[in-house]
Amino acid sequence: MSNETNAKSVLIIPCSGIGKVHGLLTREATYLVTDEIAPGQTDTMCLALLVKGDAEALEAVQSRHCITIDGCPKACAEKNVKVAGGNPATIVRVTEALKEHHGANPGSPTELTEEGWVIAREIAANVAEAAARLRAGKEEIR
Known about the structure:
- This protein is an alpha/beta fold.
- About 50% of the residues lie in helices and about 10% in strands.
- It is built from 7 helices and 4 strands, in the order H-E-H-E-H-H-E-H-E-H-H.
- It has helices at about 5, 20-35, 45-50, 55-65, 75-85, 95-100, 115-135; strands at about 10-15, 40-45, 65-70, 90-95.
- Helix 2 packs across helix 7 (about 115-135).
- It is globular, with a radius of gyration of 14 Å.
């Protein structure tokens, strides 16, 4: 996280989701937003930093707008941001996005199919729109 963009960028926090395609979708959607769609306006961090109690990570979620992206109903990203003292302004669930693609094969835990990339891009577009609304001063947009 760069110091210059930290003050105003929206923090996107995906679940770890190791071993599941749902987790890969959260991470790829996050990277699409932070690296391609809205670089400098959004940033990310590893969820494990919050779980570990890293001081810089805790300060970041407590002082910036956060969007969480969870792969499964356990909502680890959302829960850990809240435990860390943050308040996710937007909560995205991959399971909801997958309902729009009933029967799709998004891929494996290590590789997305073309259908998976379509889903990841849709999630990313929604997250980028939410981040833009937050940066425009709209606090709660769930």
